[in-house]
Amino acid sequence: QLQLVESGGGLVQPGGTLRLSCAASGSTFDYYAIGWFRQAPGKEREGVSCIRRISGRTDYADSVKGRFTISRDNAKNTVYLQMNSLKPEDTAVYYCAAEKSIFGSSWSNPLRYDYWGQGTQVTVSS
User: Fold this and answer.
1) pLDDT score recorded for residue 101
2) What is the H or E stretch that residue 35 is in?
3) C-alpha dist (Å) from residue 7 to 55, 60, 82, 103
4) Is residue 109 classed as helix, strand or coil in its secondary structure?
C-alpha cells in the first residue's frame, strides 16, 4: 500500500514561489506515475501536472505551463512541484496522487488515481 504525504504549502505573495514535495512510502515508488491536483473552495479538483514512471514524460495544465515544473527523485521517493510566478487564482489545496498506468490525457482525471495524499494548502495573496 502506497502512502503519500505532501508538504511545502503556505502563504505567498503574488509573483512569489513555492516548492511542494510529495513523499512516498510503503511501496516501490518508481512503479508509479505521480500527479499533482488542486481544489479551490466550491470548485472541482483539477489536474495540475503529472510525471510518468518510466519515460519521465511530464504534462501540465494550460493554466500553469511555463510557471510550474514537476520533477521526481526516485532515490528519495519524492516528487516535487516547483511553482513560480504564483497568482491568486493558484490558491487551492494541492494534492499528489499515484497510479501505475497513466496514458495520454487521462493524467488529468482524478478518477484514474488510486492513491492520494492529505493535501497541502497554498494561498497566494498580498
Assistant:
1) 83
2) strand 33-39
3) 25, 20, 12, 27
4) coil
